[in-house]
Amino acid sequence: MAYDKNNVFAKILRGEIPCKKVYEDEHALAFHDINPQAPVHVLVIPKGEYVSMMDFTAHAPAELVVGFLRAVGTVARQLELEKTGYRVLANAGANAHQEVPHLHIHIFGGRPLGPMLVRQH
Ligand code: 5GP
Fold first, then answer.
1. Could you give the domains of the chain?
2. Which of 44, 71, 82, 116 is least enclosed, having the fewest CB within 10 Å?
3. Ligand 1 in contact with 113 (CB < 6 A)?
């Protein structure tokens, strides 16, 4: 899938739309989800035009891949989730209900998070 420069996270990265920032470095930006699904629900996005984890890991420079993953860990630590636990998740494509076509990792925490996937029956 081609990258859409007008997706909402691209606009956040360009500063055209505000966000509640929790962390930023040269590789990544982290901010609170606008519609939180848990007491802690933060999104971490790489500073680059990548649609999904597959796109990112295939095409991003190694320094950015490492920097982005380190940022996810740094944010989880900054949010003090290590002791109680947390979940990281990245949706890609239709079956996963990816809404925004810019790679993002969700970090959830602050309560017991239940089963990994919703049961369908
Ligand atoms: P996805 O389903 O693509 O994995 O998740 C997209 C997430 O982005 C959703 O949890 C949604 O609430 C969040 N989101 C969508 N638009 C915005 C926005 O403008 N600002 C913020 N902070 N989050 C957004």
1. 8-109 (3.30.428.10)
2. 116
3. no
